[in-house]
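Lab notebook: predicted structure, single chain.

Context: the supervisor wants predicted structures on file for every construct in the current expression panel, including those that have not yet been purified. This is the next one on the list. No modifications to the sequence; it matches the entry in the shared construct table.
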Amino acid sequence: MAREQTGRTVHGAGRAQEGHGPVRYGPPALDPGLPVLPESAEVLAAAAARGVPEPMGGGGALREAATGYWARRGLHGSPENVVAAPGAPPLLLALLAAHGGDVLMPRPCAATWIPQARLLGRPAYPVPTPAECGGVPDPYALLETVRRVRAEGGRPRLLLVSVVDDPTATVAPPELVSEACEAAVGEGLHIVSDETWRDTLHRPRDTVLLSPAEMFPDDVTVVCDLAGALAPSAWPVAVARFPDTERAATRRARTLDVLTALGAHVAGPVAATAAHVLREPAAVTDRVRRSAALQAQVAAAAHRAVLSAGALARPPQAGRHLYADLGPLRARLASRGVTDSLELEEYLTERLGAPAPGGHRFGDELGALRVRLGTGTLLGSTPEQQLASLAAAKPLELPHVARALSMFGAALDELR
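Prediction complete. Output recorded below exactly as produced.
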């Protein structure tokens, strides 16, 4: 577990790193996204007088709405197999606690995964991902890791994946998802599939998305944080879909026990709003579609700026960020006192005026000069500018977007 040395603590790097200067605890700041959809705000306001807390795991309306949401995506089930929590972190923590054994996850991975496993005292083993995407481990590397862990006396039981990935903003090809999941299930691993970003595909007609639960319905628990596409991060709610098996029912009960111990109720007004957006009325689906189309244009421009500066990055396919490797710029960065991802985070956060979390927060090695760059801040600094970006046919030509992209590119170009 990472620990302090000379005042510096690195999270996600897998071991303590020596250095200088304090580091803030916790995951990177959340992207607030676009202004709240007025229709959603009206639903929240109408439910504001609800003083009775939701039942632990979510009330019937919320769980039924989540069931319908997944059914429209080919994942059928019943409300009895759904659990809700106030955000993905407590829900994932409860899921990890409900499963025994060691945890495997792709490298890089979501910023909260490794700290949560460590909080529970569970060993967390990173598995390399293939060159074309993140979020899903290379099948052969997965099998080798499982065998190595067992040879060392470990008990690998759980694999976390994200087919639409945070942090790399990539979508895993169906054949890779199939091979990795087949390898995991063959080794007796249960799979938790984080599908928070599945509704943010930049080119939904050209991208084939396959959920692990479509192939192995009895061996996959699906998680979705509504902050990905449907609701603002200020209204925390996430839902989990359990398999329809006796073993899963036991794990669901354990998950509810942990959530109860945490006091992790979904607030009543938030639950009402979550049920509303999960039913996907026209205003919600229109906002989701237009937001993804806007992010596709802005993220592509940011990606071009990264490549133009001589850095590397996979083309972003979803979400509101991209994952850049500034390794080719190492000499120039070193001349500015930047030699690892922690210093890179501090440097780019100051230069860009926006959070730029380093790869160490996502399980990458500290010495790798990788960073997650958000694109949401390129849409404007005020709600009015952000909504103008959303409404524009050519958002890159708006003065505030063009200016933000110019500043973004200049901060990288000076490192060439």
